[in-house]
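Hi all, long-time lurker, first post. I run a small reading group and we've been trying to get comfortable going from sequence to structure in the token notation. Rather than ask abstract questions, I figured I'd post a concrete chain and ask someone more experienced to write out its structure so we can walk through it together at our next meeting. Sequence below, copied exactly:
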Amino acid sequence: MPLPQICPVVLCGGSGTRLWPRSRVSKPKPFLPLLDEATLFEATLDRCAGEIFDRPIIVTGAAHVAHVRELSEGRDVKIIIEPTARNTAPAIGLAAERLSADKIIMVFPSDHYISDTDAFIDAATTAAVLAQKGWLVAFGIEATAPETGFGYIRRGDSLSDCTYRIAQFVEKPNLASAEKYLADGNYFWNGGIFCFTAGQYLEQLANSRPAMRQAIKESVSDGRDDGELFYPNSVLFSEIIGESIDYAVMEQAKIGAVVPVSMGWSDIGNWHALQEARNNGAEKNLTRGPAELIDCHNVMTDSDGPRVSVIGLEDVIVVVDGGEVLVTTRAGAQKVGQLAGAREQ
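-- Answer (accepted) --
Happy to help. Here is the structure in token form:
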């Protein structure tokens, strides 16, 4: 059967605290030009502008509407204003409730990096075919290192030449487990990209989280349109207990499938991940803004003005932004979000 167009659902929440001080609560990483002149949010919209995609739906909070509208100006988008942050399962539900039951949805985080767009499009097409057949599909990102900061997906029985049933979702592992997953070859990173029909998602949500499903339905039914903006009923939506799609739907369903893909993906989740993306995985010095490095290896500096001078260090990242200074080792980059400054505006 012919494949209908896919509706991209772009999730634009979170605060990106591990990229402080460049990323702030008031302007988190989706809205920053961290890799190119375009922001990660704009790059996400660009990826889903091809002929297989329909008009995107962007789900965001009120605090970020101005950024979303500014960066999507001139594009044909619909924006759903999430009244309260309730994690990904309800956010996706809002979009699904606004669409016909047979509409294919593809969920994208707005702050990830993908270098191989062709591989992404191929995987999206494969996932959409499965979704049209009733599967709940996850992208399985090829694991290239024993990462402990990602969840994993273990593949099960083959569905076709390059698609599989999902055997298990695995929590973020310790290093020993991550090394075993990498050697095993049957585990993929869970990149948070999913595909299904709107009706199938809502049906599975009703099975596993009926109260959430009902609250979503009522909040949309009692919502209001304002041009390209849609406002669900805030009182009804706020009654929802927040939960991720992984826990609320994907881990509960018996119809989960995974499409493996190698597409140069990164979640740009911290300064180390950004350093790797900027360096294409190489270990070399990298500077943005005024800097002088002497006898350094794999050092990255990023300054919005003041000169950064570094001598004799390796695997260190120095960031200066808005009067704040961050110095971290590569290994410590995951802990930046614990800093008091990272939780401030």
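A couple of things your group might point at:
The mean pLDDT is 95.
DSSP finds ten helices and 19 strands in the chain.
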